[in-house]
Specification:
This protein is an alpha+beta fold. The protein has one domain. It is globular, with a radius of gyration of 15 Å.
Length: 146
Amino acid sequence: MNFEIKPHVGIGSVELEMNRADIKKILGEENLSYVNEEIDYYFNNSLQIEFVNDKADFIGMSYHPDINVMYKNTNVFDTEAKELFNLIARNEEENHKFDEMEYLFPKQIVTLWDADEQYDHMGTTNTRLIWAQIGIGSQNYLEAVS
């Protein structure tokens, strides 16, 4: 299964501003892992969707062996953290400084969280820094976290 990250739009078939029921129809009840008041998790908690007023406000992806998550034709979970950071930064207007803990690219509203070797599931030696999660948010999300 492939999920393309499209800033300001969505990840895969899940789009920002989509309502919860429509997302559940698209992803399938059988893939729903956990639900609370404001967040739904799918695919063994690899896909996190946060809702505000029943609309998707943030979509985050973590590694799952059956899902390829792509940004500009690059597999985000098979790309070293600094390289992915620089790829995303090239699509911003301002200069950005690498931070392996977390980062928010404000123009695209793309987030990166926790670069660590333990997330190198696709490498052969688990020695690359790989991001634990990549996400996108709405304008509302950006305003809330800024």
